Amino acid sequence: MNLIPASYIPGLPASVLVGWQPITPGLSPEMLSGNGLTEYQKISSEQRKHEFLTARTLLRNMMLELGWDPATWRLEKEPLGKPYLTNGKENRYVSFSHSQHTVFAALSETVDLGIDSELTRRQVNPEIVRRILSENEWKVMGEDDPITLWTVKEAGVKCLGTGLRTNLKELEMTRTGDHTFTIQINKEPGMQAVSFHFEDHTLAIAYH
C-alpha cells in the first residue's frame, strides 16, 4: 500500500485518506468472506479478479493505517452500487477507482466522497467532453484539460452513488481555484471537488 501525501491534494479535508496500489496478480482470496467472496466467485475475468483482490487488500491496509480493525468492518454496497463500510451500528465512507494498472481508494470516517482516476496521457474526443458539459460549463471551461473535467464529473457521480442513472450535465461544475471546484446538482448546492495529478494519473475527489 502507498499513501498519497496531502501536499498533492490541496483543499482536500484532512479526514480523507487516499491510497493506491499496483494491480497485483497472485493475491489470495482467503481474505474474503460473505458478500465479498460471493462477488469474487462470480467474476470470470482474471484481470477483474486481480483488480478486486488488489482493491480489498488496499482497503484493508488503509483501515489498519487509520487504526480501524478490518475484522470489525465489512464492505457493503447501496442498491445502486455505491460502496460503504459498516460495523452494523455505524457507516463509514469509501470509494474506489482503477486504471489499467493501478487501484486508488479514498476513505473517511466523516466525509462522504467519490474518487475517479484516468491516465493523464489518455486522449479524449472533444465531442465527448462537449456532451458532458452544460452550456455554461462549455463557455467557461471548454478549453480546459478534458481529463480534469471528466474525472471531476465522474467523481461527483460516484459521490452521489446514482451511477448510470445520472446525466453528467445535471452536475454543474464551477471552478473555485486552480485545483478546486464546486458541483451543483440541478442548480442546488451539492459537493466540493479537488483535482490533482499523481505520477501518470489525473485524479479527482468529490465530497460533502
Would you kindly provide a written description of the structure presented here, covering whatever features stand out?
The chain has 208 residues and is α+β, with helices and mostly antiparallel strands. It has 2 domains: 2-110, Ribosomal Protein L22, Chain A (Alpha-Beta Complex), CATH 3.90.470.20; 117-207, Ribosomal Protein L22, Chain A (Alpha-Beta Complex), CATH 3.90.470.20. Helix content is 27%, strand content 33%. It is built from 5 helices and 11 strands, in the order ββααβββββαααββββ. The protein has helices spanning 34-41, 46-65, 126-132, 135-141, 146-160; strands at 2-3, 16-22, 74-77, 83-86, 91-98, 102-108, 113-119, 171-175, 180-185, 188-198, 201-207. The strands form 2 sheets. A 6-stranded antiparallel sheet has the order 1-2-6-5-4-3, covered by helices on one side. Strands 7-11-10-9-8 form a 5-stranded antiparallel sheet, covered by helices on one side. A hairpin with a 4-residue loop joins strand 4 (83-86) and strand 5. The radius of gyration is 17 Å and the shape is globular. The two termini are 26 Å apart.
Total DSSP helices: 5
| Topology, number of strands | 11
Low-pLDDT windows of residues = none
Give the CATH level 1 class of the largest domain.
Alpha Beta
Please state the second-level CATH architecture of the largest domain.
Answer: Alpha-Beta Complex
Helix content: 25-40%
Domain module count: 2
Q: What is the string of SSEs from the N terminus onward? A: EEHHEEEEEHHHEEEE
How would you write the strand order of the largest sheet? 1-2-6-5-4-3
Beta-strand share of residues: 25-35%
CATH topology assignment of the largest domain: Ribosomal Protein L22, Chain A
**What is the general shape?**
globular
Q: What class do helices, strands and sheet pairing give?
A: alpha+beta
Instruction: Note the main sheet.
Output: 6 strands, antiparallel
Q: Quick one: CATH superfamily of the largest domain? A: 4'-phosphopantetheinyl transferase domain
Work out the radius of gyration.
17 Å
Distance between the termini: 26 Å
Rounded mean pLDDT score: 93
